[in-house]
Amino acid sequence: MKLKSLLSFFTWSIAAIIGGGLMAGAGIYLYLTPKLPALQELSDIRMQTPLTVYANDGALIGSFGEQKRIPVEASDIPRNFVNAFLAAEDDRFFEHSGVDFKGLARAVVGLATTGEIQGGGSTITMQVARNIYLHRGQTFTRKFSEILLSFQIEQQLSKDEIFQLYVNKIFLGKRAYGIQAAAEVYYGTTIDQLTLAQMAMIAGLPKGPSIYNPIVNPTRALERRNWILRRMHSLNMISREELDHALTEPMSASTHDTQLDVHAPYVAEMARLFAVEQFGEDYSTLGYRIYTTVNSDWQTVANNALENGLNAFDSRKGYRGPEVDASQMLGGQITPEQVEQVIAAQINRVENTPTIGGHVPAVVIGIDANVLTLKLDRNTELTIDFSERLDELRPYIDENQIGRTPSALNEVFVIGDMIRLTPDLNSISQVPEIQGALIAVDPNTGAIRSLVGGYTGDYNRAERAVRQPGSSFKPFIYAAALDSGMTPATLINDSPVVVPDGESIWRPTNDGGRFNGPTRLRQALYQSRNMVSVRIVQELGLNHIRNYLAAVGFNRSELSRTGLSIALGAQGQTPLKMAELYAMLANGGYRVEPYLIERIEDSYGNIIYQHEGAVVCDTACLAQRESSVEEEALSLDDLIEPTRFNDAPRVMDESVNFLLDSILQDVIKLGTGRRARALERPDIAGKTGTTNGPTDAWFSGYQRNLATVVWVGYDDAERRLGDREYGGSAALPIWIDFMREALAEEPVYQRDVPDGIVAVRINPETGLRTQNRDNSIVEYFRQDNLPDVETVVTEDIFGETEEPRRRNLDDIF
Asked: Is 572 within 8 Å of 468 (Cβ atoms)?
């Protein structure tokens, strides 16, 4: 009877324990389930992936984001990499349903014996649940939530999908999230190029990204790697031969920063700001890829052209002295006892000072007659002999003069000075204080092909610097004149102008103070005669000029701020705006909006933004379009939505554009842009610009398929360039260097003479038509706006009497 009672007691006790456990489990389930995250969007879980910016050919130019992550597809992961993670974290991953009860039992035992949850029970699925949805920390509630969520994950996703989430989400040290980022950070390669040993090394990181980090703790990382390799062999994932080979492979991890393919920081920042505007502050975590319009080769050429041009400008001004003067560090002369202290401090400074524009920082540690001893860092020392080169160190005095050649190096340097060297480490250099900008635009679409916003600093001068364009603004004043009935042969008096301006008098003048008297419009523009521009504005009236300039693309509200001085380019413009307007001149008179962002893709390659701006469709384009429409004509049964074209609007009359273009070609053939004849291209045109001071130097020019603007000046708009610095000497050489490379593969463009334009002979002194071939020149005119006849003329120079003909410029000049 007692035995029966005892058995009954145990039976009911076990039943009560089981029942209590079931009730407790049910209670926990009912309590925790409502608190679990929803899984509806699990398959589309967002990774915190950096924003990346590319040139139009896919070259990387920028990356923004705290977490470095490069998502991969499960199908792209090498099998050995999968096995390495299984061996390290969860070898039964493909067998269990989200929870490995054997491992969980070990964790429960640990909880019962120590009062704490020990590791060992987490599967890969549970780690996914924890990493994506739940807070960290080993608590009883979190562990049960993790288990419940793991079951839900396994019901919704396949094993491959779960594993893909895991290897893309997991933190692997050094800001690397996911295996692709880790492969790049530690080995500078992609996952498909890793060795077996390297895969095992990365697979060992989830357990302790710092403890087992091959860079921070190489000894423990090696032990962890080898343990994983041996476990892979014990699980029959690799052969004995593979194991032995991997175990003998030396440690090869090192830090690999993201390597940019093209140096374009101003472009990258413009793209980043665009992303902020479009997507808000999450822009750097969404994994978006921005493809810009920039041509990577041209961008490199633009960088070099601007850098070389500003270096050349700076070298003409003399040497400003050490970048950090050691004698100023301790408030005066350095005593012998302080020399070592100063040198050590300066070496530390140099090691933390970046090279800028190829100018390498160095410390003077010895001066012996005309030989300078330098250190680039603690271990690199070199000497430079200046015996025959002391003239390189003539000092800067002001923008117009430099000092005498020093007789010895100790007149220029003291031990401990921090200076700069040229890239070949053979000459003294300095980071220029002068700044500049270059922007090149496709006239047919407005696509920005290259952009450099300065020599140094974050300020993007190409986009933001509002500076007076000087004479590079004049072509638009002349366009207004041509549009109003003046011709390239119209005579305008190049003589002094006096204009009352409130209580003062404005007396503009020409460069050099000379006046030529009556001057043809063409000649006045290519010689950049200021008085002619002023008289055009006086003749047409400020309101008329402003209306015309607004019609072709200038900002109307800004134009109202400037009076007659608008004739000389006193109204500030950015290089970007000038590039837009010169692109209009290049394309025949159509307005295109410059743009930088071609498209944006999400982390899966879906296009989420596509630029759709207006493009130029000239006569040839229209003919081709009509031909295409005829070829694709459909029957009524097959009728579909017709193609809609976004054509750029014409803002400048074709004949005006042609006449102005021919004059701007003369700027290069005969005028202030003659240096550009070195390019030996008959199809380039442009205009120099120099402002009072001078404080700004410009060259704005184009070929039919590329418009490029260069600006040179100081960030301090009041600082002068120097009396002998002009657009033709400071900015034009940069433009030439860039265009030489950018146009290297571009065939010479031959523009047809448009209908309504004729070429006749004129007397260059009077601008009137003449039959005298000996003392005449050829000029273009609108057929309905020919000059008066000096003597009877019955034929144009082509000797034809038919209606106006379409001719090539080479037929005339």
From this structure: yes
